[in-house]
């Protein structure tokens, strides 16, 4: 089994500051990390590999320094790392990014064996679009399962996978055919810790580095800024809302009663509506 | 030599991450509760840190002494005493790897490297510390067993460990009468003193180990009779590097706290790090740490290539690095003012922990004896 995991190197948002006057993100000197959502995808992929055998290839598109994140992924136990780096890729929006990644995944398939599964995180902490995973699936013609919380079964002989997908109001249990793309939900597993042997293996591993040409990109105008129709109109820090918290006194009344009384006070119609509804039963 | 290789940076980063995430957040709590963090040590073992310089055919990591100093310094940034305990375990594992017979290596090392067995090293006795060759714990051979009588003092991990590497007297007076035997916990006649109340190193138990007719199979003798003192001393060269590395890591952590604090704390209308008197002290502390680190690496590299001066260099490193480490940590406490004296800031624990690094694994006075002995011999 061959699994490709797409990761992204992002600024560590815990250490980002917004300039108080210009409201722009101050990126200088901010350390980079693997997009935390991607770690859930990576762990899910590693766990499947451990269970069923095979290889995990991690892929990223970014500047040469993104190799650091790939090495980090290798210390967690990934088998191979591919860096897609080229100045033509700079400034890509999600459309251009999915084009580049899909091209690279095809190339990975030709070079190292066709992937049975492609994993991405649900979204990134810098762009927050959650578009790249589905976009890659669409471009590669893969079936896709998004917001997956758990892979409940994998049958390599019959090429099927069953996953729990969290949706509004419940959990869907879905089955689909391989190959497919999965976007993993956060907090669904915990990334393992690589040992001394993994650290050494990662330090010694060669990161496969591909330019646009190496990856087999045919239309350079679909890459980077040129291939990105998205226009960022404005970046701003949300205004803090000036809302006062209400203190509810529980000393004389049971908490539920006190809260319901407070609710009815604020929504005067609610009580009559509920009463009407109740009469219907 | 003056730049770490990519391999070394990788293992150091890995140990630093482990220290930051698994040790540092709990260190104060463990210290206050005198809790011996065995599960955390086992987690470190699972990552390859319990048999650092044990060969890999038995589950060791097969790394060098220099690599080990990087690991112990990194772990000590989380807690010097936790890191130091792991170094003792590593010393025992190394001793069996280095001097054990193939059957002994196969029997003990996979379990030691996984920390399914936790090990302690027993050399010091109530009546012999610096003069280790005067040890009196006796092992008398009776058939295919040795019968042990005596007492060991200041044994880290005692009572909690599963395996004890014990220096015993099988022959006459002096170093040539000393042998090394492995004693398993639970052997009849083996008992322990009370957990000592100590200034620091509270995360690991320290007890006397008492042998009252403890029967040990001859198969547990390491090497030949009479070789024990040689093994003990050989172990100490590396042990001293590790104890120094642990001091360095602790001091680095105290320094980082002081540097951070001096940027936050305001007095007389500005951050205290804007006062030149304080800047000079920070500069001196950083210099001390870098000099100590550089020399520690040199001594470790000498031991790795079996340089004839290695013992002396290790003694110099132990003496210098542990003195510098304590001074820097103590200075970091001073820079915190009254807050440095409070447990919550984490600096006083480091000072308490690092004080003993000047005493154990050969006192810093004995280090001078070792260095001077070599000098005077050469002078003659």
Tell me about this structure.
The complex is a heterodimer of chains A (281) and B (380). Helix content of chain A is 33%, strand content 25%. With 281 residues, chain A is of the alpha/beta class. Chain A folds into two domains: 2-227, Rossmann fold; 243-281, no CATH class. Chain A has a nine-stranded mixed β-sheet with strand order 11-10-9-12-8-1-6-7-13, sandwiched between helices. In chain A, strands 2-5 form a two-stranded antiparallel sheet. Chain A is globular and about 70 Å long. Chain A starts with a strand and ends with a helix. Chain B has 380 residues and is α+β, with helices and mostly antiparallel strands. Chain B has three domains: 6-113, Butyryl-Coa Dehydrogenase, subunit A, domain 1 (Orthogonal Bundle); 119-226, Butyryl-CoA Dehydrogenase, subunit A, domain 2 (Beta Barrel); 229-378, Butyryl-CoA Dehydrogenase, subunit A, domain 3 (Up-down Bundle). In chain B, the strands form three sheets. In chain B, strands 1-4-5-8 form a four-stranded mixed β-sheet. In chain B, helix 1 (6-23) runs parallel beside helix 4 (65-76). The model of chain B has no long low-confidence stretch (mean pLDDT 96). Chains A and B meet through helix 5 of A and helix 1 of B.
- H/E element order of chain A: EEEEEHEHEHEHEEEEHEHHH
Count of distinct structural domains of chain A: 2
Overall pLDDT level of chain B: 96
Biggest sheet record of chain B: 4 strands, mixed
Q: Estimate what percentage of residues of chain B fall within beta strands.
A: 5-15%
Number of helices of chain B: 11
Output the CATH topology of the largest domain in chain B: Butyryl-CoA Dehydrogenase, subunit A, domain 3
Biggest interface: chains and residue counts? A-B, 12 and 17 residues
Number of strands of chain A: 13
User: What's the level 1 CATH class of the largest domain in chain A?
Assistant: Alpha Beta
* CATH architecture type of the largest domain in chain B: Up-down Bundle
* Radius of gyration computed on alpha carbons of chain B: 21 Å
Q: What's the CATH C level of the largest domain in chain B?
A: Mainly Alpha
Question: How far apart are the termini of chain A?
Answer: 56 Å
């Amino acid at each position: 089994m061959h699994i490709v995991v797409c990761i992204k190197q992002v600024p560590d948002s815990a250490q980002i500051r917004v300039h108080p006057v210009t409201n722009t993100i101050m990126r200088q000197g901010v350390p980079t990390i693997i997009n935390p959502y991607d770690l859930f995808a990576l762990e899910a992929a590693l766990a499947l590999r451990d269970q069923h055998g095979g290889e995990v290839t991690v892929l990223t598109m970014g500047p040469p320094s993104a190799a650091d994140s790939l090495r980090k992924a290798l210390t967690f136990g990934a088998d191979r790392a591919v860096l897609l780096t080229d100045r033509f890729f700079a400034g890509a929006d999600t459309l251009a990014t999915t084009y580049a990644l899909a091209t690279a995944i095809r190339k990975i398939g030709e070079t190292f064996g066709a992937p049975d599964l492609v994993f991405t995180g649900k979204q990134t902490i810098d762009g927050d679009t959650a578009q790249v995973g589905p976009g890659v699936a669409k471009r590669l013609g893969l079936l896709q399962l998004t917001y997956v919380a758990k892979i409940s079964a994998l049958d390599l002989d019959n090429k099927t996978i069953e996953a729990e997908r969290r949706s509004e109001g419940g959990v869907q249990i879905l089955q689909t055919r391989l190959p497919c793309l999965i976007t993993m939900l956060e907090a669904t597993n915990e990334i393992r810790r690589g040992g001394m042997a993994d650290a050494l293996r990662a330090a010694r591993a060669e990161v496969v580095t591909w330019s646009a040409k190496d990856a087999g990109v045919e239309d350079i105008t679909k890459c980077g800024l040129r291939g990105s129709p998205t226009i960022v109109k404005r970046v701003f820090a949300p205004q803090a809302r000036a809302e006062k918290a209400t203190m509810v006194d529980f000393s004389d009344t049971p908490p539920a009663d006190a809260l319901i009384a407070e609710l009815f006070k604020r929504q005067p119609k609610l009580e009559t509506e509920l009463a009407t509804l109740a009469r219907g039963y | 030599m003056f730049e770490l290789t990519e391999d070394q940076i990788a293992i150091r980063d890995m140990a630093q991450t482990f220290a930051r995430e698994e040790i540092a957040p709990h260190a104060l709590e463990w210290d206050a509760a005198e809790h011996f963090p065995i599960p955390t040590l086992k987690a470190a073992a699972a990552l390859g840190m319990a048999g650092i310089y044990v060969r890999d055919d038995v589950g060791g990591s097969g790394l060098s002494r220099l690599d080990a100093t990087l690991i112990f310094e990194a772990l000590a940034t989380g807690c010097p005493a936790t890191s130091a305990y792991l170094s003792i375990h590593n010393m025992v594992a190394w001793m069996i790897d280095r001097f054990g017979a193939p059957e002994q290596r196969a029997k003990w090392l996979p379990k030691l490297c996984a920390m399914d067995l936790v090990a302690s090293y027993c050399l010091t006795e109530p009546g012999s510390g610096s003069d280790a060759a005067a040890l009196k714990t006796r092992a008398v051979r009776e058939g295919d067993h040795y019968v042990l009588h005596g007492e060991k003092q200041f044994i880290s991990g005692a009572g909690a460990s599963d395996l004890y590497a014990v220096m015993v007297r099988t022959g006459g007076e002096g170093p040539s009468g000393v042998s090394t035997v492995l004693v398993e916990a639970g052997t009849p006649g083996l008992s322990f003193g009370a957990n000592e109340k100590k200034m620091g190193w509270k995360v690991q138990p320290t007890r006397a180990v008492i042998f009252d007719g403890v029967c040990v199979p001859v198969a547990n003798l390491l090497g030949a009779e009479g070789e024990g003192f040689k093994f003990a001393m050989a172990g100490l060269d590396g042990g001293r590097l590790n104890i120094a590395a642990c001091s360095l890591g602790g001091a680095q952590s105290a320094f980082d706290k002081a540097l951070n604090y001096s940027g936050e704390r305001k007095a007389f209308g500005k951050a205290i790090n804007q006062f030149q008197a304080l800047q000079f002290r920070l500069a001196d502390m950083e210099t001390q740490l870098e000099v100590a680190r550089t020399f520690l690496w040199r001594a470790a590299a000498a031991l790795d290539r079996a340089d004839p001066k290695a013992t002396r260099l290790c003694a110099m490193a132990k003496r210098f690095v542990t003195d510098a480490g304590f001074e820097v940590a103590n200075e970091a406490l001073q820079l915190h003012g009254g807050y440095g004296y409070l447990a919550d800031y984490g600096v006083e624990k480091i000072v308490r922990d690092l004080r003993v690094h000047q005493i154990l694994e050969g006192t810093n006075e004995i280090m001078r004896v070792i260095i001077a002995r070599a000098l005077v011999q050469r002078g003659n």
